[in-house]
Every structure is written in C-alpha cells, then in structure tokens.
Amino acid sequence: MVGSATVGADTDICPQLLPDSVAQAVASGDTVIQKESIWKRVSDKLGARYYKSKHDSAYVVRPEGKGLTLKVRMNQTGNTFHAKGTVDGIYSKSDLSTSHKTTFSLAATYRGIGAAIAINPAKWSGVYKDYEFNLNYYGSRFSLDLSYQRSESLSGDFHGDRGDKRLESGEATLKVLNFVGYYTFNHRRFSYPAAFTQSYIQRRSAGSWLIGISYQGGSIKTNDELIKRAPDAPVTTIEFGHVGIGGGYGYNLVLGRKWLLHASILPTVVVYNRNKMIVNGEEKEAEHVRFNMIFNERLAVVYNFSQRFFAGATLVMNNSVFDDKNVVVNQNKWRARAFLGMRF
C-alpha cells in the first residue's frame, strides 16, 4: 500500500513504476515543495538583508511586522520654464508651463522590493499626451531622484521685438531629464527612507550633511501647429543642460513619537552647461563654464497612527538658475505626493 505520507517522504520511489494518478501526485507534490523551498530561500535572504541595519536603534528602526507595506498614493507634477536671449538681433523672452499631471497609484513593498501601478484619468480621457517617468531610490547612505518628462501641453507667452505671441498647448514639445544623487553622512541617525518610503521609522530628531551631483537638461521646440496658427511666429528651439556638484543639509524632526517633519536642500554649483537658443535657424550659445546654480529641495510630513497605519505627503523640487549675457534659462520642476499606508 502506498500512503500519502510515504509518497511525500520516500525518495526511493520511482514515479515511472507507479500508477499514473500516483505518479502525478508525486510530481505535483515535488513541484509544490520545490516552489515553497525557493520562495522560503528568497524570503529569508530578503529578510536578512531587510532587517540587517547599521542604524543607531535609538534614532532609526525598522517597523514591526513581516516587511510588507501597501500604500494608496495621489501624485501631481508640474514644470515651469523661463528663457530669454537675443539671436541675430531679435530679442525673445518666453514664460511657459506644462499642465499639471495627476495620477493615482497603488504601491506594494516587500522587504525592500516594491512595485506600483498608476492610472492617469486625464490621459485616459485624451485631455493631453504628456508622458513622465520617475525613479526614486532612498537608501541609508546613497539616494537618487530621476525623472524624465515629455510634454506637449506646454503653453504660455513669447515676448520680443516682433511683438507678443501666445503659445497654445500642442504647439511645442518639451523634453526634460532631471537627476540628483546624494550621499548622507550621518546615515546611522538620519533616515531619508523614514520620510519618503516609510521603510524605517525615525524615533528621535536628527540631521545630516549631504553631498551630491545634479543634472537638469532637455529642449523645447516649436512645431508646425504654431506656424499654421501664426505664420509670422519665429521657429524657436531652446536647448539646455546643466551639471552641478555641491552639498547641503537635511533634518528629520520627530514630534510626539507620531509626527515626522522633514526638510532638506542640496544646492549645487554648475560646473558645465550647454545652453543655446536657435531662432529661425540662427544660433546663440551660452558660455560652457559660468557660475550658476541648481537647487534640489525636499519636504515631507508623515503621521504614524500606530506601528501599522500611517499617512503623509512629500514634495520634491528641482530648480535651475542660469544667467548668461547670451542666454538666460530658469526651470522649476516639482512633484507632490499624498499617501495612506498600512504595514503587515
């Protein structure tokens, strides 16, 4: 007689010599055991990495539980752009902004590995065709923010020697890449993840000096839609790019063991740029090395109802200030987020 206990444990049994139904049970049981074993090994490795912490536990700790976090989030982003210069004797000044993009998302994180799904109601309904990609990594020591935006909803005003022109949505294309990476010196007592991913809990107030590098670059190009509406409008291309290095400071303020308020700023000095303005085929380029700045600011507020439930909001901003006798460029990119989460 072959019992289920024997089939599951006896490694001497050969499935080829058993009835088909029993052989299938053996194979199925082995597969389940193998899958469970693989998942257990993966889970154990993630757990060992997740709970291994070099933080000062009097200041920063992991939340209690199995390491699973679910969050509902609402995100909104925007971008404003200002530029001016004189090309071929023609002065031009632009003040432009994109439509605010609002998305709703559900995010899940298990022991440091996360995924999210987001919906954009305005894009689904065909209001605009903008695209944006955001990647954020907040580690104990190293962190980075990266975003890429392609927008056709850019609109605003052009001012110049040839009169004022209105740029309507769909008449120009904006492409922007923003990147900032930074190192936290007081990483044992100050936690960026506590403020921005809630994978840690800041128990006592602490701050840290920061050092980092930032880049902000892209282009704005008018297209045929503008020429159709205003044939005398100048064909304009603005290309910009700044690389900066610098340092700053961040602080986590803990109030009453439930409130966490975060503020940080990382100003960087532009060490190289490639800014140019092209109007009707004529080009004017800025000096590649000139003192200017890129500012990276972050704000966050988190309220822990308990070890399990929390809510909050964050704001991340990147601002460039570039002033040159030929080309002046100023860009302000921001992303705001509100969230409600649960830990298991």
Radius of gyration: 27 Å
SS strand fraction = over 45%
- Mean pLDDT over the full residue set: 80
Low-pLDDT sequence parts: 1-18
How far is the N terminus from the C terminus? 45 Å
Largest sheet: 17 strands, antiparallel
The number of E-state strands comes to: 19
- Secondary structure class reads alpha+beta
Helix content: 10-25%
Please work out how many helical segments DSSP would assign. Answer: 5
Q: Report the principal-axis shape.
A: elongated
Can you walk me through this structure?
It is a single chain. With about 350 residues, the chain is an alpha+beta fold. The protein is about 15% helix and about 55% strand. The protein has 5 helices and 19 strands. The strands form 2 sheets. The protein has a 17-stranded antiparallel beta sheet that branches. The protein has a two-stranded antiparallel ribbon with strand order 1-11. A hairpin with a 4-residue loop joins strand 8 (about 155-160) and strand 9. Mean pLDDT is about 80; it is low at about 1-20.
